[in-house]
Amino acid sequence: MKQLPRAVIGRLPRYFRCLRILINNEVLRISSDELAGLVGLSASQVRGDLAALGDLGQQGYGYSVKTLYAEIASRLGAGDNFEAVIFGATPLGLALASGPLLSRRGVSVTAVLYTKEVRTIVCEGESPKTVCEGVVLPDGCRVLPVSELESVKSRDIAILACDDEEAPELYRLVADHGFRGVWNLTELELRGSASTRVINARLGDSLMILCFGLHSGDWE
Amino acid sequence: MKQLPRAVIGRLPRYFRCLRILINNEVLRISSDELAGLVGLSASQVRGDLAALGDLGQQGYGYSVKTLYAEIASRLGAGDNFEAVIFGATPLGLALASGPLLSRRGVSVTAVLYTKEVRTIVCEGESPKTVCEGVVLPDGCRVLPVSELESVKSRDIAILACDDEEAPELYRLVADHGFRGVWNLTELELRGSASTRVINARLGDSLMILCFGLHSGDWE
DNA sequence: TAGATTGTTAATCGATTAACAATC
DNA sequence: TAGATTGTTAATCGATTAACAATC
């Protein structure tokens, strides 16, 4: 299996999302030209990207949506069923725990850990658990204080959804406890290590790029 | 004012975040080497990026944190006080409305619009308004059904935080009502037009890159 | 076969890097 | 002056594009 160029890897999730929609719409085949329109790239680039993944297309026909989706999902590890622990029972943390974003990518949340004693409305008995309006935690997801981290088994992904001030300390905790990956949603820039991979989500950065566009006019 | 390279623009928000932290810590000056450590780039790249912004450094001394921050904030339009309307009273939409992410960037939320009649716990009389645990809307932010969009004046930024299924319809609505920019937090890829700029946040994509790293091992 | 569409190539473009002269 | 650190350059690297031969 050849090493994929970094730029291609960065675009795979986009194909993943678009192909999933095609599958839901029961589309069976698609050409590089049509797919390019959906993902917002050129047909040439789409062909280049997909060719890097292997021999997936068929000349004169195009690509099988299912084959493509399966290949990309497998390359990305979307079928690996990683388990995540969310650090911070913040509105953002709870939104992620209850929304479809993680589960669609094959990531399941086993716990939400809080640092500040919140007057959270948790109905421990109920299933699914309703934390507050619109926030229903998935089955098997516990809500605990961070001090109970030991009792949580998952060590795949730590999702940092805490306040920025708490990030450095929680990151140390996470690294010490052997989490393999960190998805950092705080505003801090964290650096990974040999044993702990870190991805800084930089959610707010994309908003600033939009503001730059509105501010300066000239941009694309 | 020379046109900035696209790659530099993409990194400006990162400098913005790191410099803000330095300012909070009352750091006055910084060298390209130190700053590089914070933002996770090489010193060479930092100097290149900052040189593209103008004559901000001083040889033998470094950069003034304040000057740098002011210049970058101004370039990004962080001082333009853009007004945003959030489409979707979802957990994510409410998290953004109540959290510091927007306000730190000089963006204020004037309204949260909902599509489904939710049993939302809004205390209309109170100020600040508490929607649910941990979600306190800022002053001047209204919660309305989408049908009341006409009564909202802001036309700077529309934040799409609705369910994916609602995105196409709401996007049309937003474009028709003359919003200048769209920050799309749904999983769909939207394309902008001459009059409406669109940035797809692609929040989940960064999580998938992390999964790819855990899955494939070899990556950086 | 004719038409469609891929996979690949060569050319271009832009971004990154390392080194160092300029300068405070 | 000596030390530090920038701004700039030339060389390298990687990504994108357009064109077209290969092939279904």
Write the topology of this structure.
The structure is a homodimer of 220-residue chains.
Chain A: H1 6-24, E1 29-30, H2 32-39, H3 43-53, E2 57-58, E3 62-64, H4 65-76, E4 82-87, H5 91-98, E5 107-114, E6 129-132, E7 135-137, E8 142-145, E9 157-160, H6 167-176, E10 181-184, E11 197-200, H7 203-216
Parallel strand pairs in A: 4-5, 4-9, 5-8, 9-10, 10-11
Antiparallel strand pairs in A: 1-3, 2-3, 6-7
Helix pairs in contact in A: 1-4, 2-3
The structure holds a DNA duplex (24 and 24 nucleotides).
Detailed description of the structure:
- Two copies of one chain form a homodimer.
- The first copy, chain A, has seven helices and eleven strands.
- With 220 residues, chain A is α/β, with parallel strands linked by helices.
- Chain A has two domains: 6-75, Orthogonal Bundle (Arc Repressor Mutant, subunit A); 82-205, NAD(P)-binding Rossmann-like Domain (Rossmann fold, 3-Layer(aba) Sandwich).
- In chain A, the strands form three sheets. A six-stranded parallel beta sheet of chain A has the order 8-5-4-9-10-11, sandwiched between helices. In chain A, strands 1-3-2 form a three-stranded antiparallel beta sheet.
- In chain A, β9 (157-160), α6 (167-176) and β10 (181-184) form a beta-alpha-beta unit.
- The interface between A and B is large, with 75 and 75 residues.
- Chain A binds a DNA duplex (24 and 24 nucleotides) through residues 5-8, 31-33, 42-45, 47-48, 50-51, 55, 57-63.
